[in-house]
Amino acid sequence: HLLARPFSEFNQEQQKKFFEVLEGDNETILNRSRRNKASEIAKRFEFFFETVTDEQRKLIEKNIQLFQGLNRLRLKNRLITQVSLKKSYEIKDIKEREQYIYAIFDKNLRQREPFSNLKAVSEFCRSYFKTLKPKQIQHFKERKVVIIDWIQGIIDHYK
Length: 159
Description:
mainly alpha, 8 helices
């Protein structure tokens, strides 16, 4: 919502650059949805648990379709939003355009709620957590303050 005003004030050159950046990001997400990025996912888990065992790496590999599917859904939702944003730039009145963009963002939060995908992710995490070794659990405990701050930030963002 904070971005509605600045986005609404983009001139044609800024709009062009903005959509070029978005297209680059879209390409990255598309590639993630196609390729087996198990090593990249493992790195994310290493942030929380320091290391990933062979057993855990195999579990990630076995569930790679879950992560690829999330990226496909993310890309689909981004494209829907980007089509609406392009349409918004047909509106000449800046205030009217801002309200239109605000409505786009509001609709996105309601209709494409990112938490709706958490069931499958939580099932994967439950399986993953059962494989944790004592050293990994200790690392997690040491990182807990940072992790809780991140979770609180996400909760505050989606309030």
